[in-house]
C-alpha cells in the first residue's frame, strides 16, 4: 500500500491543544482555541449562572470565564501560577475556560480516536468527542460546542 | 477475649448479610407482564422489607385476566430503576454442570465469579484509571486494555449495602476483573483461589430481587456468586 493510501485509510490528522485538570489530560481542537492567557483577575458577575466564574477584560472586550473544573464534576480549587484561561470559540460565541495548566499541541489521526463508552452520565457524554490512548494514558477530547447547552450559551451571551 | 469479641462482630455482620442473601425476598404483588401463575404462590412469613431510598420507577400495570376482575387489583409495587428485572433461568447456563469460579474479596465481602465469564485479571494499573467528567460514584473511569476502553467499576459501592459500612474496604483496590467481553472491569482488593463447584454446592437465587447480580451463594465458602451477565445488564441500565 502506498504511503498516500495508508494515510488516507488512517484518516485526517487534527491538532488538539491539551490541558490538565488534576492529573487528567484533555484536548480541545486547535481550530477552536483563540488564545491562551495567563491567570488574571476574574471579576465576578452577580446573578451569573453557577458555571460562570466571572468576566475578564481582553483588549477592551468582555470575555466570560467558565469554571471548567465544576463543569467536569471536579472539586473547586484555587487557581495556581500554572493556571491558564483558554479563550475558545464555540460557533459565534467566545468564552474563556479556566484550566489547571496548558500542555502542548498534539496531532491525532482520526483512526486513533475511540468513542468514549458512557459512564452513567448523559451530560458528559454530550461533550466528549472521544478518547485517544497516548503513552499509557487516555486523552479525553472535548467538543467545546457542547460543553454548554444552547440555553447556557445564550445565558453567557447576555453577560 | 476483647480481641475475640472484635473479631466476632464483623464476622456476625458478614453471616447476617449472607443469611439475608439466602432468604427469599418477601413476595409482594408486582404489576408486571409476567405469567400470572407466579403471583398465585403462597407468600412466606418474613420480616418486613425496609423501604428503598432511591427514586422509584413505576412498572407498567399488567392487564388483569378476566377471572381476576372480581377480586381487588393488587397495588403496583414501584421498583427502582436500578433493579430492572432480568429475564433469567433459575440457574445460569454455565452452572448446569460442574464449573470453576475465582474467589475474590471486596472489603470484608467474599465474592466469586465463574471463570467462563472472566476475560482477564489485572493488577491495578500503576498509571491509574482515567476518570471521566461527571462520572457516578460507582465508576472509577476508563482503562485501556487490549485495544478497548474498559469501564472500571467500584464493586464495593455496588454490592455492599449502605447499612453494612463495616464491610466496606479500608484500602484502595489492587486488582481488576475484566468481564462482559472486556466492556467492564470490577475492582477488588484480593484475589483468592479457584474453586471447582458442583451446582449442588450453591444455593441459587430464583428471582432477580434486590440483587440481580447475585447468582447464588457458595455454601461451603460463604461467598456470593456473581452472575456477570446480570451485573453487566445492571450497569448498562445505570448508564441509561
Descriptive notes:
The complex is a heterodimer of chains A (159) and B (240). Chain A has one domain (3-157): OB fold (Dihydrolipoamide Acetyltransferase, E2P) (Beta Barrel), CATH 2.40.50.180. The termini of chain A are far apart. Chain A has four helices and ten strands; from the N terminus they run αβββββαβββαββα. The longest helix of chain A has 8 residues, at 3-10. In chain A, the strands form two sheets. In chain A, strands 8-1-2-10-9 form a five-stranded mixed β-sheet. Chain A is globular, with a radius of gyration of 17 Å. With 159 residues, chain A is an alpha+beta fold. Chain B is α+β, with helices and mostly antiparallel strands and 240 residues long. Chain B folds into two domains: 2-38 and 56-83, no CATH class; 93-239, OB fold (Dihydrolipoamide Acetyltransferase, E2P) (Beta Barrel), CATH 2.40.50. Chain B contains three helices and 13 strands. In chain B, the strands form three sheets. A six-stranded mixed β-sheet of chain B has the order 10-3-4-13-12-11. A five-stranded mixed β-sheet of chain B has the order 5-8-9-7-6. Chain B has a two-stranded antiparallel ribbon with strand order 1-2. The radius of gyration of chain B is 19 Å and the shape is globular. Residues 24-41 and 49-85 of chain B have low confidence and may be disordered. The A-B interface holds A 23-24, 71-74, 114, 116-124, 127-128, 131, 133, 136-138, 140 and B 127-128, 130-136, 138-139, 141-142, 144, 149, 151, 183, 238-240.
Amino acid at each position: 500500500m502506498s504511503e498516500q493510501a495508508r494515510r488516507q485509510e488512517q484518516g485526517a490528522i487534527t491538532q488538539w491543544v491539551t490541558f490538565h485538570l488534576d492529573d487528567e489530560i484533555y484536548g480541545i481542537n486547535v481550530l477552536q482555541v483563540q488564545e491562551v492567557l495567563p491567570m488574571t483577575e476574574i471579576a465576578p458577575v452577580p446573578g451569573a449562572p453557577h458555571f460562570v466564574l466571572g468576566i475578564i477584560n481582553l483588549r477592551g472586550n468582555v470575555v466570560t470565564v467558565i469554571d471548567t473544573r465544576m463543569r467536569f464534576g471536579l472539586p473547586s480549587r484555587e487557581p495556581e501560577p500554572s493556571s491558564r484561561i483558554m479563550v475558545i470559540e464555540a460557533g459565534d460565541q467566545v468564552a474563556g475556560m479556566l484550566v489547571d495548566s496548558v500542555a502542548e499541541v498534539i496531532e491525532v489521526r482520526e483512526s486513533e480516536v475511540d468513542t468514549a463508552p458512557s459512564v452513567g452520565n448523559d451530560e458528559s457524554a454530550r461533550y466528549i468527542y472521544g478518547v485517544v490512548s497516548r503513552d499509557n494514558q487516555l486523552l479525553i477530547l472535548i467538543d467545546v460546542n457542547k460543553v454548554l447547552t444552547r440555553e447556557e450559551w445564550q445565558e453567557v451571551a447576555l453577560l | 477475649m476483647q480481641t475475640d469479641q472484635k473479631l466476632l462482630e464483623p464476622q456476625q455482620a458478614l453471616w447476617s448479610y449472607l443469611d439475608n442473601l439466602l432468604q427469599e425476598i418477601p413476595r409482594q404483588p408486582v404489576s408486571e407482564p409476567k405469567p400470572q401463575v407466579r403471583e398465585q404462590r403462597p407468600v412466606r412469613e418474613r420480616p418486613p422489607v425496609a423501604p428503598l431510598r432511591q427514586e422509584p420507577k413505576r412498572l407498567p400495570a399488567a392487564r388483569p385476566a378476566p377471572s381476576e376482575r372480581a377480586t381487588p387489583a393488587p397495588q403496583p409495587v414501584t421498583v427502582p430503576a436500578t433493579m430492572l428485572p432480568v429475564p433469567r433461568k433459575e440457574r445460569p447456563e454455565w452452572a448446569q454442570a460442574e464449573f470453576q469460579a475465582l474467589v475474590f474479596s471486596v472489603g470484608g465481602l467474599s465474592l466469586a465469579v465463574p471463570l467462563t465469564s472472566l476475560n482477564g485479571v489485572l493488577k491495578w494499573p500503576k498509571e491509574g484509571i482515567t476518570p471521566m467528567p461527571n462520572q457516578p460514584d460507582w465508576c472509577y473511569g476508563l482503562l485501556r486494555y487490549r485495544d478497548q476502553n474498559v469501564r472500571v467499576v467500584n464493586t464495593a459501592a455496588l454490592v455492599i449495602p449502605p447499612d453494612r459500612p463495616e464491610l466496606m474496604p479500608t484500602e484502595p483496590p489492587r486488582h481488576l476483573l475484566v468481564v462482559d467481553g472486556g466492556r467492564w472491569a470490577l475492582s477488588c482488593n484480593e484475589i483468592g483461589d479457584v474453586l471447582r463447584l458442583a451446582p449442588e454446592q450453591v444455593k441459587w437465587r430464583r428471582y432477580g430481587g434486590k440483587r440481580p447480580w447475585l447468582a447464588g451463594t457458595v455454601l461451603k465458602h460463604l461467598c456470593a456468586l456473581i452472575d456477570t451477565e446480570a451485573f453487566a445488564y445492571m450497569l448498562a441500565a445505570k448508564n441509561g
